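Extended Data, panel c. Modelled sequence:
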Amino acid sequence: MNRINNVVFEEMSDGAWSTRLLSRGLSLYDVTRFVAFALGERTPNHFHPAMYVQDDFFRCLHVLEAIYKCIEGLGLEDELSNDIQLAFNASEVDLGVEWRPPVFMRTGAQLLDERLVNDALRWLRAHQYKSVLDPFEKGLAHYLEAMNRPERLADVITDMYEATEALAKVATGKDRDLSKNREVFIKSLRVSEYYKRLLKDYIAYGSEFRHAERLGKPRPPLSEPEVESFIYLTGLFIRLVMRTT
């Protein structure tokens, strides 16, 4: 966090950064207001996004993500990414997190991360998949928060289920719940009967978490490895859709 402060937050305070922002129609205060909105905080009465970090590692990550999204497309995002990566590369320990613009991700199995998470994120950036990308990124963010707040693990299951539901809507062109869209979804992918069973179990599992709160039922207990595997399973469905449609 000290390194991020040195290479990012202090640099944002100097004249060069302020000048570059102003040349693109933004002030540091505008960036701070964007960060406040992204974090769900009150409109700031100060003029620097670093004030929202509050000596908390995970809040620091959220602030950096919000800054990146605020300046994305202005020609400043690559410089910010390089500064973030510089600070992370200098860490003496494995932080369990990596920077994948525009978000931080919790690291798992490197090969699975690349094929089932990073590939999915790249594919889903196409305009027609925004409804899938949003819950998928939200699930990854909740998985990151779960390092410090285990209660977030159930939210990851719900988010990933919603991403798959949105994916089925795009693939079939039918705006229906995943449970009602299952048969048409599988048919559109031209896969075997075994995948119908797999998707049916996926839906039953995800629905138990998605509807538990609405029905006033406690969510089943979860382990971190189980949630990680559900993320990868969701990535498998995304990969299947992208390769067969």
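The two ends are 43 Å apart (CA to CA). This feature is highlighted in the accompanying rendering.
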